[in-house]
Description:
Number of helices: 7
Structural class: alpha/beta
Number of strands: 5
Largest sheet: 5 strands, parallel
Helix content: 40-55%
Order of helices and strands: EHEHEHHEHEHH
Amino acid sequence: MIDVLVIDKTDQIKLGLLKAQAKxxxxxxxxxxxNILEQHSxxxxxxxIKVMQEQTAEYVxxxxxxxxxxxxxxxxxxxxxxxxxxxxxxxxxxxQQLDQLEKYSSRLVTAMNAGEAWITRRMTATLLxxxxxx
Length: 134
């Protein structure tokens, strides 16, 4: 089983993972999540953007300092390309819309555990374009 840390103030993400073969730990706030991450270093971290709102990208950086081997996926109702890009540039390896999480949860967790990214091809192009700009 793949170790997954869910950072969410609700049970929405946890409920979306019912089909995934994962050992899930949950934290309802950023401090508890950071402690779990430092102690257990889960393979995958699913972060609800509502936990940190506008500071999500900065929090992604903090999470990666605590556990550089963890793959972080930002979960949200809907984000703009710019918001997704900020999270990716901060170190997140993916983005998933919350309403589609249950449908893709098994593949998402497996892909993250394998070191893959979880973003659209269009977002990949946007990310590459942003890296080329001075």
